Amino acid sequence: MKYTYPTYQRYQIEPSTGQGSQLTATNGKTYLDFTSGIGVCNLGYKNPALLAQVHDQVDKLWHISNLYENDLQDQVAHLLVGAADKQVFFCNSGTEANEAAIKLARRVTGKAGILAFTNGFHGRTYGSLSATDNAAIKTGFGPFVPDISFAPYNEQAALAQITPDLAAVILEVIQGEGGVVLGDPAWLQAVNQKCQATGVLLIIDEVQTGMGRTGSLFAYEQFNLDPDIVTLAKALANGIPVGAVIGRKAFAKDFGPGSHGSTFGGNLIAMAAAKGVLQQLTPDFLKDIKAKGQEFQQDLQANLAALPNVVAVSGLGLMAGIQLTDKLSADQVVQQLQKVGLLTLTAKHNVLRLLPPLVTTTAALHQGISLIKQVLQEVPYESISR
Ligand SMILES: *Cc1c(COP(=O)(O)O)cnc(C)c1O
User: Coiled-coil intervals in this record (predicted)?
Assistant: First the structure.
């Protein structure tokens, strides 16, 4: 690509059509996809019901701005909050959702401090990037938003840093970009309790873990947490840009008319897609994903954990990380897997990250794991260049 900034190192493959959990590229090859467009197309490609619902809205109206009533937006918000005493703000991406969450927390509490965690990722705009702990993506972009500090993830010592002068604590229940690092359930509970005891709001970033990825609508449900604010994006509309902030209804007075906004946020096309996604994530569907996810994790452990180049296998539901030894780069494995027809991701700490569409069959999940096993056993590879 010649006319776009080289902010991404791209693989020399151009997917042009998809079906279910498979992508076909302009090179004529069909790939099994374990990326979901980085945790986005969770319900697969050309999902028939979603296609029909989005087509229908494309023919009706695309955008009306937030100056007018938008019943579709309210329906999606209702599907997200259910019977809980919560309300929703819509935006267009994960970073915007976290940006809005930080703004809301500061306004609600009248305090400024935000405590984030080591190895966390919350996005690329200033507020979210300031709460992200990854030197590689922050270099040269400072100064950052003031009053954002960090505590060690999964460590007892972090609890002492949750003090009443903070507006909020922001965390991922499973750190995705950080290498699929699972939060310790007891530690997460302790963080939640300390927040409640100190009057500090708890923001849970479910941008990657939400929308069924881990076997429940939100991952925090499996850890029995009670966040004040939840942020969503990625899979919420299966590929149409959207983000959302879910917060307590009591915060409504601090998000009153004119306080915050977004031209595109809650756009009709995105809402039609999000409504379709939420309609498919029924309790029965989620139960199936949970069972399929357990099988997937067991299959990964059984086949990969003991291989010489594997340090550890981690994950929950259909989200997994395979940490490799220094001898083998995860990016090299990704490219080798492309040659045998499987698309995968990397994450920090030399992790091979897997985010297959939730609609992937157990047989296809197993097939992907077999390919990974095969490729991990084939090293050393001939030199690979992009
Ligand atoms: C991807 C991601 C974001 C950023 O989302 P964008 O839509 O790229 O802005 C934020 N938080 C987490 C946990 C993510 O995985």
Answer: none
Q: Compute how many other C-beta atoms are within 10 angstroms of the C-beta atom of residue 187.
A: 16
Are 217 and 312 within one domain? Answer: no
Which amino acid type is present at position 189? Q
What's the 324 CA to ligand 1 centre distance in angstroms?
A: 24
Bridge partner list, 169: 115, 202
The answer on 187 and 77 residing in a single domain is yes
> What atom in ligand 1 is closest to the CA of residue 123?
4
Residues 6+ apart with CB under 8 A from 218: 204, 206, 209, 210, 230
Q: What are 290-348's pLDDT values in tens digits?
A: 999 999 999 999 999 999 999 999 999 999 999 999 999 999 999 999 999 999 999 99
Q: What does the alpha-carbon distance between residue 305 and residue 319 come to, in Å, rounded to a whole number?
A: 16
pTM for the model: 0.98
Domain count, the chain: 2
* 124 and 224 share one domain: yes
Q: What is the residue with the minimal CA distance to atom 8 of ligand 1? A: 94
Q: What separation in Å is there between the alpha carbon of 123 and the centre of ligand 1?
A: 5
Tell me: the pLDDT tens digits for 3-13?
A: 999 999 999 99
| Domain co-membership, 260 together with 327 | no
Residue among 35, 36, 99, 121 whose CB has most ligand 1 atoms within 8 A, to mutate: 121
Give the E-state strand segments of 20-109 in sequence order: 22-25, 30-33, 86-91
Residue identified by tokens 């954002």 is 148
Enclosing H/E stretch for 292: helix 283-304
Domain of 363, CATH number, reads 3.90.1150.10
Q: Which domain holds residue 75?
A: 48-280
Question: Does residue 320 contact residue 305 with C-beta atoms inside 8 Å?
Answer: no
Torsion of CA 277, 279, 282, 286, to 10 degrees: 0
Return the percentage of the chain with pLDDT > 70, whole number.
99
Domain membership of residue 10 (yes or no) is no
Cα–Cα distance, 114 to 248 (Å, whole number): 18
